[in-house]
Amino acid sequence: MKYTYYGQSCFLLETSTAKLLFDPFITGNSLAASINVNSIEADYILLSHGHSDHIGDAVAIAKRTNAKVICMPEVNTWLEKQGITNVHEMNYGKYKFDFGSVRMVWATHSSSLPDGSYGGNPAGFVIDADNLQIYYAGDTGLTLEMKLLAELYQLEYAILPIGGNYTMDPADAAIAADYVKCNTVIGVHYDSFPVITIDKNFAQESFKRAQKNLLLPRIGETIDL
């Protein structure tokens, strides 16, 4: 499986059979100016919640690629108003797709849509595909709910927000990695705005103290999982 980072919380997971794009926010992120959003292909688009820094490019990419969008019912209602109909709405449950299974899991955050309407509950996802189990936390603070994932999965990777202020900071994310019993973390949701700018050295040290490995791919970089 391959992971490509597009900034903020947007990334692409390429399984053996499908391309999964998460929380597309590229054209509104000045740090991602080098990314040509029209070159990104997707079979599925997974939306953790309705905030604009997670769905900013979702409609345009969904229309261009005809990707199936996976999201909360309230987000689906908003997408329908934008002309998006290829949607699989979920809540906190599990569903088997052609590439593998997706479990939508709890996130402690808020959610509203660009028009100000209610966005339903925020969420994260656990992807089980190609013999890998990967947790994407979405936007969340540290919560004991994460400990349940260690009972359900043997996670190879956890994709966690580390920018602080709106979400976990590096120290909290290192604790979250311990809660879910995952040794390798990919950091997201940082540096896009002044209030979530991080000290990368401090972040790395926080994870080293917790005996965890923190990966911070560059925007546009692809790594093998």
Automatic annotation (TrEMBL):
Residues 7-189 form the Metallo-beta-lactamase domain. Keywords: Hydrolase. The keyword Membrane does not apply. InterPro entries: Metallo-B-lactamas, RibonucZ/Hydroxyglut_hydro, UPF0173, UPF0173_UPF0282_UlaG_hydrolase. One of its GO terms (molecular function) is hydrolase activity. It holds the Pfam family Lactamase_B_3. Coiled coil: none annotated. Belongs to the UPF0173 family. This is UPF0173 metal-dependent hydrolase MMF97_03090. It comes from Pedobacter montanisoli.
